[in-house]
Amino acid sequence: xxxxxxxxxxxxxxxxxxxxxxxxxxxxxxxxxxxxxxxxxxxxxxxxxxxxxxxxxxxxxxxxxxxxxxxxxxxxxxxxxxxxxxxxxxxxxxxxxxxxxxxxxxxxxxxxxxxxxxxxxxxxxxxxxxxxxxxxxxxxxxxxxxxxxxxxxxxxxxxxxxxxxxxxxxxxxxxxxxxxxxxxxxxxxxxxxxxxxxxxxxxxxxxxxxxxxxxxxxxxxxxxxxxxxxxxxxxxxxxxxxxxxxxxxxxxxxxxxxxxxxxxxxxxxxxxxxxxxxxxxxxxxxxxxxxxxxxxxxxxxxxxxxxxxxxxxxxxxxxxxxxx
Length: 324
Description:
Blueprint: H1 3-27, H2 30-45, H3 54-78, H4 100-107, H5 109-115, H6 120-131, H7 136-143, H8 147-164, H9 172-188, H10 191-197, E1 198-207, E2 219-220, H11 222-238, E3 242-245, E4 253-257, E5 263-272, E6 275-282, H12 297-304, H13 318-321
Parallel strand pairs: 1-6
Antiparallel strand pairs: 1-2, 3-4, 4-5, 5-6
Helix pairs in contact: 1-2, 1-3, 2-3, 3-7, 6-7, 6-8, 7-8, 9-10, 10-11, 11-12
Domain RNA polymerase sigma factor 70 region 4 type: 110-161
Subunit structure: Interacts transiently with the RNA polymerase catalytic core formed by RpoA, RpoB, RpoC and RpoZ (2 alpha, 1 beta, 1 beta' and 1 omega subunit) to form the RNA polymerase holoenzyme that can initiate transcription.
InterPro entries: ECF_Sigma-70_Domain, NTF2-like_dom_sf, RNA_pol_sigma-70_dom, RNA_pol_sigma-70_ECF, RNA_pol_sigma70_r2, RNA_pol_sigma70_r4_t2, RNA_pol_sigma_r2, RNA_pol_sigma_r3/r4-like
């Protein structure tokens, strides 16, 4: 590798976390974001001249690639079986301590689902401008529109996002403590405690994509959700499953594993006004491969139908926690 090539690779690796974070927010898919970043590298590596501003150049390339991928993905998502959720992301590789709270909120499933309402161009402009604070000249170059057009796109995108923007708890520590109490109550099968911690209009929604057991579109109300969770716990404990509390998409959540440590599903918890408002569960095995080896949930359920009843949900061994 030449000195020029070595410098190019080093520069790209420094910017890789940012590029992935842009692509993931535009696409809502870990696998597609990784592919977009890889395609960006191939174009950068074969570029005849080194750009004066690598960050602006690479951000523009990954954005254009992501817009193209999103346009084709829209058709598939319209035909998706049941509710569609983004692929769960356990950690955002892009770190900015001064804006960590904003970045975490923009990563949440609630925010990403709001982004689904935008056109691909609006979504890209919003991500670059509102999340990563790019200037309008850079945004315009990235999406191939004039600065004036990008300002209009940004206004429309902000209007859509502000109309449905989730209101997460401001105090991160309080949010984490509430989530811990909720997950402890679930592990212990304490229906009364679950009901107390759930918002009156709480929802439990699952994304199986037709490739895992499909719940009805959603369960609503603290009473209904707590009863469903109690029944779900019974199935899990019969086959020795474990629950690992873990941040998912910048919010409190959990990873569920079978006795071999293989991933069953993930939870992401939306917490509003001191209560658990929404539980979003990703069960589609196609969306869990990046989290770890994926379990056969159909086999788990068949075994659960015949398993013992009087157990509580376990926690994973330390080595299982370290897998993620």
